[in-house]
Design a protein that fits this description.
This protein has 430 residues and is α+β, with helices and mostly antiparallel strands. It is built from nine helices and 20 strands.
Amino acid sequence: MPRRVPLVVYPFLKNALFSKVFKDFLIGWIGERPLRGGVGNWLASRYTSGIMSFAKVDVIVVGVGTMGAAAPYHLARRGASVLGLEQHAIPHTLGAHHGFSRAIRSAYYEHPNYVPLLKRSFALWDALERTSGQRVLYRTGGLYMGPEDAAFITGATRAATAHQLPYERLSSAQLRERFPQFELPSHYTGFLEAEAGFVVPEIAMNAHVEGALRGGATLLGHVKVTSWQVTSEGVRIETNRGAFRAKHVVLTAGAWAPLWSAGLPFALKVTRQTWGWFWPKVLAPFALGTLPTWFIESEPGSGYYGFPMMPEQPGLKLALHQPGTETTAESVDRRIDLAGDEAPLRRCLEGHLPEGNGHLLALRTCLYTNSPDGHFIIDRHPTSANVTIACGFSGHGFKFAPVVGEILADLALLGRTDHPIDFLSMDRFR
C-alpha cells in the first residue's frame, strides 16, 4: 500500500527556509515508491513546480500530441500516476492535431484489421463526449468516389463485407442524383457509409487533456526530452528541466519520432501537407447536414478529400491525401507557397466541385509521419520491455486516438492488450 503524505508537512512546501530540509526528507522517506493517482501527481507538481524533481511515477508519456494526450487520459482513469512531457505548448499547431476536422470511417480500405479498432474508437469518442460535455464527433456520412475498381472503393467494400458494416454502392447516375455538388467522370461510382463523418481535433485534444488533468495526471508543456535510459528501477528521462523516473515510458513523439527511432527496424519519413479553405460560389450544397465527408480517388491510395462547412473556420475545407514534400519536424517550412500549395486544391475544385471554386480564405500546413508501409507502429521497444512506442500514423491516425490511448495504457500497465494489434507490430519489418 503506498504511503500517505502527512498533512503536517504541507506548511513547509511554501517555506524557502525549510525547502532543502523538506526535500531531502521527502525524497528519502518516499524512496523509489511510486505515488499513486491524483495525490501523488498533486504533491509532485505542488512541491516541485520550480525545481522539476518528481518521485517515480507509474508511466511517463513523451509527447503530448494526438496519442500522447489520449494515453494519459486512459492511464489516469485507471488510477495510475502519470506524467506527460511535451516540448511545445499543450496543445500546439506544429504537428498533426489541428485543422478543425479529421475524417473518421469504419469501412477501412487500408486493412480490414483496423475495423475492430475503429468500432471501439467510435464508442470511445461517444464516451468522451459524455464525460466532457463537448461535441467531438459529427456523423455526416462518408462518400467515396472513383472508378469501379478504385482501391478505396474495393477495399472499403471488402472491409464492410467482412465485418458486416452497412453501406451503399452508388452508380454514376445515383451519384449525380443524390450528390449534384460533384462533377465526376461518367465511369465513376460511389461507396456511401452512413456512420462515417469527422472529429474536431482541437475539441478532442482539449477533452483528452482536461480529462487527464482532472483525473490526476500531470502534464508539463515546454519540457524537451534529451535522452532516456533503462535502469534497474525502470526508466530515467533527462530533459531541459530536470530528470524524471518511471516504471514505464510511452513514446508518442509524432513527427519528432525519427529522433528516437535509431536502431529500430524501420525508417520514418516526415512530409509537409497542406489544407485549404475556400468560400464557395454557392453555399447551400456545402453546408453541414447536406455535404458528407468525402473522398475522390485520383490514383490508387491517393486522392482529394474534404468536409462540410463548419463555424470554427469559414469556408469549404479540402486537401490532397498523399505524402507531400519530405522534411523533418525541425526543418519544415511552414510558410505558405501560394503557387505550390493552392494549385492542386484549385484543380480539384475546378474539376469536381465547380460551385465550391470560390475565393481562397486560408492555407495551413501539418505533418504526416509515414511508416514504410503506411500502417501504424504500436509495439514494445525491442530491447527495452518497459518502453512502448506508438508512431508512423501515416496521415490516417487521428480517428484512432482514443483506442490507441486505451491500448497504450494496457501495454504500460499490463504488458499486453486484448485489442487486435499484431498486424501493427514492428516485427513486420524484420
